[in-house]
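Supplementary Methods, section 5.1.

A reviewer requested that the exact input to the structure prediction be made available. We therefore reproduce it here, unchanged from the version used in the analyses.
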Amino acid sequence: MPKTNSSPENVFLEFIERYGPPAGPDGPERMVREVFGISPDPWQISVLTAYGKGERRISIRACHGPGKTAVAAWLIWHMLLTKFPQKSVATAPSRGQLEDALVVEVLKWGNRLPPVLKDLFELKKNRIELKASPEESFFTARTARAENPEALQGVHSEHVLLVADEASGVPEQIFEAAAGSMSGHSATTLLLSNPVRSTGFFFDTHNRLRDMWFTVHVGYKDSPRVSEDFARDIARRYGDDSNAYRIRVLGEFPKGDLDTIIPFELIHSAMERDIVVPPNSIEVWGLDVARYGDDANALVRRNAIAVIDDIETWQGVDLMQTAGRVKAKWDETEPSRRPSEILVDSIGLGAGVVDRLLELGLPVRGINVSEQASFSERYRNLRTELWFAAREWLLKRDVKLPKNEELAAEVSMLRYQHSSNGKLIAEPKSEVKKRGHKSPNIADAFVLTFASTPAGLIHGTGNDRVWNVNWSEPVHRSRVIV
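The structure derived from this sequence is encoded token-by-token as follows.
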């Protein structure tokens, strides 16, 4: 370690002797307790000890909120404080996850260091440098994108720490590119994530590659930071057999149900994706009208590449109040952002909302999802076709969903089956409720947006307002966007 003016050499050498490699496997835990003043949870201790023993591959799958990002920050600071030369590099699938979660956590603990230690480093937005040797000892954060696979590439030093946060969503190309950086004798790789995908490199580290990795599984019962109320709430809202419960509460990988229309992984990837939505993008709105007292109305807005992050739900109002709420949303929306169409499920109560919105002059169209599908040889009805259209949209992997737990849970819960003549049938709402879940109103509002008339919504057009639509006519099946 180079000499610095911030601390006498013998004091810093004593620090390394007490917490660094000479201290053995207990050094990292001792540093967390004595320097940061924190008592780690048992599962966190197991990670700190494994790192202290020299485990080079550590993979953590965890529920929501047990403190996994804190562990990563502690290990990054252990590298910065006890090893030289060293390079610590962190990545995540999105800039938001990286900068708003992991980097913030690293800076938080850096600001808690005693002044004599903190003064050794320059703390920047996405980088921390040892002042005495900024090129030989640093931490940096780089977003992991498939088109930018060099995020973890070419990281070489005597000591290397590679951290992948939300590793389940990190593209495979990133890990392939990082193979060289991960191959050194003193290179440690730390993966941490909610287990949102039952495929990919992170999944493999807990399964077929498990003998090569030190793996940790953290469920809500393993951490005092996760409340029983949280677990009960997720179970009540989505069912304790749902993927939302498995992932967020149990820290388990999602079920790879062969009969699920939209896998959870597709939804999670779309939520984590960094996409800039062009201004004044044409929108369509989908409105699912509540049919029962415990159901909710749901309004979802979507453009060509993203669902807009202001999904609305409400209950306890009559049809005219629902129509009034949609009209108020229309009025408060900038004219250039108003939807080209408002698609409403017109079966039953929805027909009254359609009639009133037509009277108010809005571009509304009733959609009878029980009608015949455009591709009637494949789908039993229009509702099924729309659900599979939503699936195809997400499969493009260049679209964006808001980080909305209810949307994720509802969209990922619907199943399908085959009729006797081989056609696909989406599970009706009544069957979803029989399985103990609430009605997927938000999800149905989302898939209604795929019944929009203008094909340019998805495929693009040079003119934003070129369609000549008679709003009082029923939608033509040939106009379903897939």
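Residues 228 and 290 are 31 Å apart (CA to CA). These observations are discussed further in the main text.
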